[in-house]
Design a protein that fits this description.
Blueprint lengths: L1 H21 L2 E11 L5 H26 L4 E2 L2 E2 L1 H7 L3 E13 L2 E11 L7 H10 L4 E6 L4 H16 L3 E2 L2 H7 L2 H6 L4 H10 L4 E16 L2 E16 L5 E13 L5 H28 L2 E8 L4 H14 L3 E10 L2 E8 L3 H8 L3 E2 L2 E9 L2 E6 L2
Parallel strand pairs: 6-7, 6-8, 11-16
Antiparallel strand pairs: 1-5, 2-3, 4-5, 8-9, 9-10, 11-13, 12-13, 14-15, 15-16
Length: 373
């Protein structure tokens, strides 16, 4: 008995650091700044708050890293770890805000956590709001009862966490069954479907079930199994955010797969949500990839001038990659510290060799512009 108590005490002792690590919090202050363009003070204030939010997370994660010595090839790699570390804002308040000429400054105090996001409902809602409430589409390739049961369970889970969802029934009515099944193999086609029906993120799922007999003594029972797999795609970039799979087995009468299907769907939804939120939190704190499409260039030299303009005069651009150029239309991939809305605000009305820049389309990670005649 004493040995049993000792083991329990030992487990509790070692569990405390793990619990503290999973719920680590820091209170951090930071000042964010933003330029005021064309007198739009409210937009500058929002951007300054976003800048401050990014800085408090970086500071909190930086303090966490400084407690360890990280050496790779005899060089400290804290910068590498900093860009990969997970941190998110649980809550914040504005301490002060003021305008100084064409610069707006905001100081915030925030509670930053380095634990898991999935159980922190307020933090989830804050991240979703900071990402401008992206819309998810959950789409199963099959049309059997098991697909509808799994989809209903996943939809219920994401709605309970504050996500906005696009009704997949409209998609099923407009796409053939074979087209739905092929989307998981073609991220670009899936992204086009998402754009067509107004989703920023599409979750492509499939479900397999089985009912196998087993015996306990002379009693025959059945193991009802459900396996659900999913691929999550950023609609604007066609990039895969995450993938996952969950299997649930439950005993019961032959063919009773509903409980195992619903439980597997909820487990997978929880895992996928955590991966999505971690990606969004990283986007808000570090660098996000934006697709920039621009048209009506007169020459390749003018395109090079535009790239130089972006690098030298637009805030937050870290890297530019040319993907295609044909007939005056260009596709660029931009690594941006900020968000697409801010990039659009900075570009709108700017002049390039006497030609003004006009915004023609904007989504979460995609921006379409054109040059005036």
């Amino acid at each position: 008995m004493k040995g049993y108590i000792f083991i329990l005490a030992l487990c509790f002792f070692f569990a405390i650091p793990a619990f503290n690590l999973a719920h680590a919090q820091k209170i951090v202050q930071a000042q964010g700044t933003a330029s005021i363009h064309k007198g739009f003070v409210d937009i500058a204030r929002d951007r300054a708050i976003s800048d401050a939010q990014r800085l408090v997370v970086e500071q909190a994660v930086g303090v966490m890293i400084s407690n360890e010595t990280l050496v790779e090839n005899y060089q400290v790699i804290s910068d590498k770890i900093l860009s990969q570390s997970k941190g998110y804002i649980q809550s914040y308040e504005v301490i002060s805000d003021e305008r100084e000429g064409d610069i707006y400054k905001v100081t915030i105090q925030a509670i930053v956590s380095t634990g898991q996001i999935k159980n922190d409902l307020e933090a989830i809602r804050l991240i979703i709001a900071r990402k401008s409430k992206p819309r998810l589409m959950i789409l199963f390739g099959g049309k059997d009862q098991k697909d509808f049961m799994a989809e209903a369970s996943m939809v219920k889970y994401f709605l309970s966490k504050g996500f906005k969802l696009v009704d997949s029934e409209t998609v099923r009515k407009n796409l053939e069954h074979e087209s739905l099944k092929s989307l998981a193999r073609d991220p670009q086609a899936a992204a086009q479907v998402g754009q067509r029906f107004g989703a920023e993120v599409i979750v492509l799922c499939s479900v397999e079930t089985s009912s196998n007999p087993f015996k306990i003594g002379d009693v025959e029972m059945y193991s009802n199994r459900a396996t659900i797999s999913a691929k999550v795609i950023n609609v604007d970039t066609s990039n895969i955010i995450t993938t996952g799979s969950e299997t649930k087995r439950l005993p019961g009468i032959q063919g009773l797969v509903q409980p195992s299907t619903e439980q597997a769907a909820e487990l997978l939804a929880s895992t996928l949500m955590d991966d999505i939120l971690n990606q969004w939190s990283s986007d808000l704190t570090n660098v996000v990839e934006v697709k920039l499409f621009a048209s009506k260039f007169h020459s390749y030299d003018e395109l090079n001038s535009f790239k130089t303009f972006l690098t030298n005069e637009i805030r937050g651009i870290k890297d530019i990659r040319l993907r295609s150029y044909a007939h005056g239309r260009v596709e660029l991939e931009i690594d941006l510290q900020g968000d697409t809305q801010s990039l659009a605000n900075d570009l709108s009305g700017q002049n390039l060799g006497g030609r003004s820049i006009k915004i023609s389309e904007i989504t979460q990670n995609r921006l379409e512009i054109e040059l005036s005649p």
